[in-house]
Amino acid sequence: MAASDSRNTPHILAIPFPTDDQLAPFLNFSYLLASHGLSITLLTTDPNSPPFQNVMVRAEYAGLNIRLLHMPFPVSPDIPEKSFTLLVYAFRSLADPIERWLQQQTEALPVTCIVSDFYLGWTQTLAAKAKIPRFVIHSTSAFGVCVDNSLWTHLPHLAVRTDDEPFQVPDLAVDLSLCRKRIPWSARLFQKFDPVSEFTRENRLLNLQSHGIVVNTFYDLELLHINKLHETTGKPVWAVGPILQHPMADDHQSENVQRWLDSREPRSVLYVCLSNYALSAVQMTALARGLEELNTPFVWVVDGNEVSDEFEERVRDRALVIQRGEAPQQALVLSHPSVGGFMTRCGWNSALASITTGVPMITWPVEGDQFSNSALVVELLKIGVQVWEGEDGTPSRDRVKSAVERVMGEGEEAQRALELSVVAIKAIKEEEATRQSMEAFAEEIRNIASAELPESHDSETPDTEQSGELTELNVKQGQEV
């Protein structure tokens, strides 16, 4: 261990969920937490993945106390595509190895608390067994957390008979009417007494027993919903955002895009990036025709051969079509002065990047928190318009054109987005509220460590090799411990 590691340093076991949308903000949050003088053990099923390697390089350069704990996925990761619920269910099989690791920790480096992703509500049970607190971290908006908590607590969607019938979502700071088509699949398909459904609900509700809640948002954006989250859960809430994606060191792909954007007028380019949900052929055709008829310059991130060579040839004087694997990070594109609109699925990472750069959004939510994020962006913040929702059906060419013209013009959405970006940029640059919130959270953990610090006495460290399953990597020292 480094000299700074001691039984007096609070030690956090941080457990992210291994999907891109969850991982990036969680790792950046862990880095920021370590910068407040705390010791972090990051659990990973793939220590060689670029996100983990990136955060470890940054941590080593900054002299921060972060180590990786490798636990191989104990079951076959052969999960059907889009079966996100099954992936959450399968990830629970790490519970026993984590519990054994916690038991092996000694007074030389005791674990003060667990910080884990909200998809890992079952870690609340592990924390209770280990008699340590657990904090839940949400990678969505505070409004989205309130909606999710309400759906799983009250199950209001079970009271309607069809997917189109509206229902009211209780326990929110604002009135919100949804239908089953506008909620996550896991809630939409919930069936009482079904093992996976019941696990999913219990997994979410266990988050309500956490010691506290961390959300990647900021007070000037969502004060109303942050306060409502505290009111409905009775738990302290720390708004620690906006935590944005840290640029990867090998992001050389951005150079060609940067040169193309440099040639365009300010706020004249539409950026189209609809995450990794493939569009149907009919949807692609409608979107392509709408974009082609607009005369608006655009950058379009696509998968495979979703657009024809003929289309690219027709629009090449005013458009740039990029394969997803070659596309630069969203924040780098959105921050360019020539970008004036963003068509997005409205995942929270994308929404935050758009908010902080002052780019109004055209939303097309499909799954998960995208629906509540779109409601926040369009109906509450009024910094975007929704062109369509769900995987079925197709927006008309006229609807695509209307949405783009409304956002790229001088309308309310564009002006509101610029005004909100000033607040967001202030939160990032001055970091006052975010820094105070991060420090308050770090101080909470220090207080827990001080209150539970046992009297000093000698103790031998158990041999971690005996488990045959767990390897803790201290990248800072370049050795296994």
UniProtKB/TrEMBL annotation:
Protein name, entry field: TSA: Wollemia nobilis Ref_Wollemi_Transcript_12796_1698 transcribed RNA sequence
Annotated source species: Wollemia nobilis
Family recorded in the similarity comment: Belongs to the UDP-glycosyltransferase family.
Chain spans, region Disordered: 448-481
PANTHER family: GLYCOSYLTRANSFERASE (PTHR48047), UDP-GLYCOSYLTRANSFERASE 92A1-LIKE (PTHR48047:SF107)
Keywords, ordered alphabetically: Transferase
Superkingdom of origin organism: Eukaryota
GO molecular function: UDP-glucosyltransferase activity
Biased composition (Polar residues): 464-481
